[in-house]
Amino acid sequence: MQKIIICDDEITIRTGLMELIGKHYPKLVIAGAASNGYEAVQLILDHHPDVVLMDINMPGLSGLEVMEKTGMQSPQTKFIVLSGYSEFEYAQKAIRLKVFDYLLKPVDRRKLLETVGQALNLSLQEEIAAAKSAPETETSLGSDAVQYVYRNYRNPDLSLSMISETLHVSSSYLSRIMRKETGMSFSEFLTKVRMETAISILNSCPEISMLKVSEETGYRNQHYFCKVFRQYTGQTSTEYRNALIKK
Length: 247
Known about the structure:
Elements: E1 3-7, H1 11-24, E2 29-34, H2 37-47, E3 51-55, H3 63-70, E4 78-83, H4 88-96, E5 101-104, H5 109-152, H6 160-167, H7 171-182, H8 186-204, H9 210-216, H10 222-233, H11 237-246
Parallel strand pairs: 1-2, 1-3, 3-4, 4-5
Helix pairs in contact: 2-3, 5-7
């Protein structure tokens, strides 16, 4: 559900705004009301509301300072500034902070409700657009991760964290995307790529040493390579190579 936070240092105004908003938007959650700038920052960071009604003249931190402190952490929030100040410098700074609208007190109720409705509608449209683009983004990310493994499987230090850092996402998120893309965990997929490569090398050149095959497939230790090979194929690497030579 969509959420709104109301920030004003005057209790009568806060109460009046809460009643007005609650009456006209009964499905809208009023996540909190702040009487000073510090409370406003905490509420915004805790709830990441869709809309904030923000008085500029707040104790502690001004409304503009609140927006500066929360803009990066809650970029989707739409700020509607309520102010008794008509000086151009306030409006100018509010515009730079990408305020949704700037309303001068005393605020016309109809105009306020209309502005809140527009902000909520824009927030909803952005949320829908983001939801539609997410599968496409995940597909692209999964494909990039898979291609990274194919290009770098020879690197014995290749890890999920290395790829996540390269693609600028968290390891846990990338792990979920790769499982969705390949049907396997990262380690399972990496083992598959390395083992299928080893099998391909042996098929094309059965006489090659196992040390060379292990090096070509990203294993520092030949004995560990042979152990993984047996687990993957059900045969030792020597048995597999001998069967190829007999053919």
